[in-house]
Design brief:
Elements lengths: L4 H20 L11 H15 L3 H8 L3 H9 L8 H13 L7 E3 L4 E2 L3 H4 L7 H8 L4 E3 L2 E5 L4 E6 L8 H10 L5 E5 L8 H8 L7 E6 L14 E5 L11 E5 L6 H10 L4 E5 L7 E7 L5 E10 L14 E2 L4 H6 L3 H11 L1
Parallel strand pairs: 5-6, 6-9, 9-10, 10-13
Antiparallel strand pairs: 1-2, 1-12, 3-4, 4-5, 7-8, 7-12, 11-12
């Protein structure tokens, strides 16, 4: 029997419920003509019926989806070019301030990246190469080595990069005599939630509540299920009980944000660095009459305190990387994590 099966089954069932509800409530794009106005109306309605953060974002910054309709409807005409329509539709979607909301065409990809663009990067690949050196080890998508103060260091750039249970066994065995562990997920834009769960399961000893999830129950903007508990089962393989620091910055998004959220609630773990980028909605997709594909957040995930992490997570230990640090060859965020573990 595969490890973590209960957690994965739960997650997939929850996602299936979300998908089934989304599909059964799907906008029939055939009711809209493949015209400039028809595509605008179809997009607005898809978001109106399926997007999951209207209530939260109305509270946070006053989002009014009806006002957004009025604002952008007047910009659409049948005389505009296809490129102009794409620009208007992308501007409308940007009002959601959601990195999971995208509009795809054969020639462009509309996206909202201000969740990370307007903030310090707090990561340097030049310093990463200095700390990893050339003698680091590679296991699947993970790079790792023992730092000179006997602290294990793992660099994971994307939850889209696969690794297996055997990889994790080998890494934790290699770090067995280390006093602590640093997991660097800075600028990790997400990927598979399954890898986030698999990695988290190495740091728990019993079935653990890591958050809550909801799914859509109707076409209304606020029609959602009650919060359903989100659990992870502990690994049956090697597990780690010593101190852990997870390094974060604004580039931590989606599955990486969820990993940070799950790890933060564990007693031996500290998040070190900068506020994460967020992205806590499970995304779904739909098509417009002209074939363009829109992706949107459909099912919200909450942390264990039933709070949204859509706009990111505050670290336990705040640390920043300055230009002077880079010039001196010192990653102050890694150094802050080392101090946490050594103390």
């Amino acid at each position: 029997m595969r490890k973590y099966l209960p957690a994965r089954i739960w997650r997939r069932l929850a996602l299936l419920l979300c998908c089934m509800t989304t599909l059964t409530a799907c906008v029939d794009t055939e009711e809209f003509d493949d015209t400039r106005n028809g595509n605008f109306e179809a997009l607005w309605k898809i978001i109106d019926e399926h997007y999951c953060f209207f209530n939260y974002k109305q509270h946070e910054y006053g989002l009014n989806w009806d006002a957004v309709y009025a604002k952008y409807k007047v910009r659409v005409s049948e005389q505009m070019t296809e490129t102009q329509l794409f620009e208007v539709l992308c501007d409308m979607l940007a009002e959601l301030r959601d990195g999971h909301v995208n509009l795809s065409t054969s020639y462009d990809y509309g996206r909202y990246w201000k969740w990370q663009e307007n903030y310090p990067q707090n990561y340097s690949d030049t310093l990463e190469r200095k700390y990893l050196g050339t003698d680091y080890k590679i296991a699947g998508g993970l790079r790792y080595k023992v730092l000179d103060d006997n602290i294990g260091y793992i660099r994971y750039e994307s939850f889209s990069s696969p690794f297996g249970e055997g990889n994790l066994d080998d890494i934790l065995s290699y770090f067995a005599l280390c006093r602590g562990l640093i997991i660097d997920i800075r600028s990790n834009g997400g990927g598979s939630l399954g890898f986030a769960e698999m990695l988290t399961a190495r740091f728990i000893d019993q079935k653990t509540l890591v958050g809550y999830i909801q799914h859509k129950t109707g076409k209304g903007r606020y029609e959602f299920s009650d919060l359903e508990p989100y659990y992870i089962e502990p690994s049956r393989n090697l597990r780690w009980h010593k101190p852990v620091c997870v390094l974060t910055n604004r580039g931590v998004f989606s599955a990486a944000n969820q990993f940070a959220s799950m790890m933060q609630m564990l007693p031996q773990v500290k998040l070190v660095g900068d506020h994460t980028g967020g992205g806590s909605g499970l995304p779904m997709s739909n098509s417009l009459p002209n074939g363009w594909v829109v992706r949107y957040s459909a099912c919200p995930i909450y942390n264990v305190r039933r709070q949204h992490t859509e706009f990111g997570i505050e670290p336990d230990v705040k640390a920043a990387l300055s230009d002077d640090d880079v010039q001196r060859g010192v990653d102050s965020i890694i150094e802050a994590a080392r101090r946490v573990i050594n103390s």
